[in-house]
UniProtKB/TrEMBL annotation:
Pfam families: 4HBT_2
GO molecular function: fatty acyl-CoA hydrolase activity
Similarity field: Belongs to the 4-hydroxybenzoyl-CoA thioesterase family.
InterPro entries assigned to the protein according to its UniProt record, in alphabetical order: 4-hydroxybenzoyl-CoA_TE (IPR050563), HotDog_dom_sf (IPR029069)
Keywords tagged on the record: Hydrolase
EC number, as in UniProt: 3.1.2.-
CDD domains documented for this protein: 4HBT
Name of this chain's protein: Acyl-CoA thioester hydrolase
Leading EC class: hydrolase
Amino acid sequence: MNPTALPHDHDIKVGPDVIDFMGHVNNAHYLSWVQEAVLAHWRHIAPPEAVAGHLWVALKHEITYRRPAFLDDQVIATVILEKVQGARAFYETIIKRGEDVLAEVKSSWCCIDAETLRPARLASEVVARFFPGEKS
């Protein structure tokens, strides 16, 4: 049984700096949005001492583009932590404009100790904050 993770919605501002020559958001900016959303999710749920003591490094992104985004669109990235395995975290991020899915992203991240800059496992009580539906 998969534990129930807390989703996190992250509002995205589509400004003129992300629009490409075709008049829509350049694909590379979607990855910046995913990084912003995942890190905002971490800061929102993790305790302050865990946030201060850990950094996150992206290991892999797999992105499927569904529709373009345009200047001044109201866009939301919803992130869900799928699982934590050792020092790795696996996320799904859905980027939407209203009901329209713009992109779906699967990504994996490595937790890094902020002092040693080495991979670090999160304490089980920190991980449990992200999966409140899981029974111990």
